[in-house]
Design brief:
Length: about 180
């Protein structure tokens, strides 16, 4: 959760908790009815609702105050010397590096997901429009698959490539007069 969202949720939770607790304490201490026109059933519903709001606010406070100790997603491997953890972020960067070796592509993005048979790689890229797209995508798939398996030792189950569009090259031909 972003820091601003956490701060806003914290402030909201504190405000609602304090107001709700103040109402409950006032009613418990004085026995006064907040809204005198309510019958007994309606008062019970009102006080129950305030109590539920207090509990929800306390839960929100807990969520905002707890530390975010969750580790980044990774692929865990074991070898003769011990455990190895490779973050998904690292595998994504390896995939981008492999894809960048293919000439004729630009603005490449990668997304990595793990499954039982290995990892799946989804590549989004722009192509130059001068090279055959099937040839480019096959080369990207081959490079990404081989490079990830060589560098990380993790089997790649699938590499899918999405060609988003054709990019415009900025090469201008000079005119000779």
């Amino acid at each position: 959760m972003k820091i601003l969202d956490r701060l806003l949720l914290f402030l909201y939770s504190v405000f609602v908790t304090v107001v709700s607790l103040a109402v409950l304490i006032q009613v418990i201490q004085t026995g006064d009815i907040i809204v005198p026109s309510l019958n007994d059933t309606q008062q019970i519903i009102l006080y129950s609702t305030v109590a539920v709001v207090v509990l929800i606010s306390i839960r929100f406070l807990y969520i905002t105050l707890r530390s975010n100790r969750s580790s980044k997603p990774s692929i865990d491997q074991r070898n003769d010397y011990g455990d190895i953890k490779i973050s998904m972020e690292t595998i994504e960067q390896v995939a981008l590096k492999a894809a960048a070796r293919v000439k004729g592509i630009k603005d490449t993005k990668a997304k990595i997901t793990a499954n039982q048979s290995g990892i799946e790689v989804k590549i989004k890229t722009y192509v130059d429009g001068e090279t055959a797209i099937p040839k480019l995508t096959e080369e990207i798939q081959q490079n990404v698959n081989d490079y990830i398996e060589d560098v990380t030792g993790i089997p790649v189950s699938n590499v899918s490539v999405l060609v988003v569009n054709i990019f415009q090259s900025n090469t201008f031909k000079s005119r000779v007069e």
